[in-house]
Fold:
Amino acid sequence: MIAMSDVWSLLTRRRDPSAPLITWIDGPNRVELSATTVLNGIAKVANALALDLDAGPRVRLDLPWNWQLPIWQGGIWASDRRIAEPADVIVVSETSDTAPPGSWAVSLDPWGRAITTQLPAGVEDVTDIVRMQPDTLLFPPTRNTAPLEDARALADALGITPGDRILALPGDPLLPLLVPLVADTSVILAQRLDEVAVARERVTHVCEHTL
Structure:
């Protein structure tokens, strides 16, 4: 049986850490993240959760289908927390207008810049708190609660093999990070199929509505 860990070691064992792991496409916007960049982003989130933010063990992610989603997923798992309900804190995007007081807001700016729009009362922008963290973990990586078995089962069911390139439309939350990690693939996150040049991007699998 595969252990419930270990997002961190899967990232550090990528064959080519400089190659794209996650690509986000939204109209004219494109963010391409290598495994090294994802590792650095996850370290920043994990450090913030463990050391600077008053984060309990259960976090709810109300983030859109955006490059920030897998970064926060990985940071939660790397800091030995769970994505679970009921949650101790809710993480939302800057576009949320219904977040309850006590929520944390994350900028969706492609450059990671802080939020400039008005947030609901009691919602804290944590973008700069995360951005100012070191790119490496400030504590030993933990064996965490990432559902790797579920991700492997989904990759097998979809016929995904090493070297494939997945186009993941909004759907299963295992697709943005865990399926590419366990299957040694890369993933494109997009809202719609017609936003992606499938042939040019060398897409081998289109995944949507897999919840």
Observations:
- The beta strands are 20-26, 29-34, 58-62, 82-83, 89-93, 104-106, 124-125, 165-168, 186-190, 205-207.
- The chain has six helices and ten strands.
- The longest strand covers residues 20-26.
- The mean pLDDT is 92.
